[in-house]
Amino acid sequence: MDYQKNLLEIYKQFHVNMDKPGFLPLIRCASEIFEAPVVFTDNKYELISMYPTKKIEDFVYDTLFEEGVLPEETIAAYHEAYLRQPGTRYEPFFEDEGLVEKCPRIFAEVYDEVKIIGHIAIFLKDKKFEPWHLEATSFLTSTLRIKINLTRQTPSVRSKFLQDLLDRHSLNPVKERSIAQLSKMNLEDSLLLVAPLDQSKSQQAFSSVAINYCLNQYPESIPIVYKDDLVILLTNKSSHCNLKNTAEKISEYLFQYKILCGAVYPIKDLYALCDYYTQARLTALFRYRDEVVNGDFHTSLYYYENIAPYPLFLQLSQNEEYRCFIHPVLKEIKAYDEEKGMTLYETLKVYCKNLFQKNESAEELHIHRNTLNYRLSRIEELFQIDLKDYQTLLHLLISIEMCAY
């Protein structure tokens, strides 16, 4: 059959096989159409179906044939190699370079409006790639999506309750029901981890693997993807140290795959979980700023209570109009320093950060206190501001902190 001219026939064949029990008929049908091995895994890269059911001398295919699941290192390597582009989902694409050079293949993702539900790989090997292959693969993913939605189990009830609590717009009766159900897990003084997933397809695809890791290693955890963030509620099984140790282990696990967490502990009020979520998310973004932007790399987990109020400044800086709240004199002082070769801005910055303590500021600047007094006087004279006025000092302090973002 000339499939280039018979895509409608391919679509019909997939839908005929969709009605047969299990997924093997669909995968076998795809294998016959592409004249190539086809494998279908779930969102955790655990084997659902493959055809033919024998080795083909490819590491991924043969590992799934023997083990039924791919190693996390392999998943991460493929994500890094082929899913670097921005976006949360990906359409079918063909690759014949890098890790798949010896066995070119088509990659495809099966997803619905909410999450990733599976992955397809078509191992073309030496077979010539044709443009119609991608459209036919889209038909396959569409058919699989329909079949999965008709047969899959109901999502985790605990995850649904957590989502209701995270949603700022949930009504109180909904929150009350969720809290009553989740309280069976002893949520007193629980801990919330939030890992913002960037817009790369790699991290979005890996989130399912991370959720599986949490559920397997820490059954009392409740991990979900919420607003493109990986959110994990850790329940208080025993002691303070154990709970924080668990959070640290999860953070280290995610750090291997360039995913950074922020945390809030303890969670005292489940009605305010949406606020804790915001705190933890901003803490993670602040950690990202420290480690990626500033180059201060380390694996320690950041807790909101240990770095507040810096996440507040980060939140303010995300407002596109935040610059209008920065004291205008700072721009003038910077321009003056550049023109005259002075360091008045740095002097003012250190003075503010030392809470206007002159001895500590002079020591940090490695200058005499009298020199500091002279510089502060010059700032007052040149720029017509009163450095003894509380409101002015507070405005300058907040402005300097916001300028860092």
Automatic annotation (TrEMBL):
Going by the entry's taxonomy, the superkingdom of the source organism is recorded as Bacteria
Domain PucR C-terminal helix-turn-helix as annotated: residue spans: 344-400
UniProt-recorded name of the protein = PucR-like helix-turn-helix protein
Provenance organism: Alkalibaculum bacchi
Traced from the root, the source organism's taxonomic lineage reads: Bacteria, Bacillati, Bacillota, Clostridia, Eubacteriales
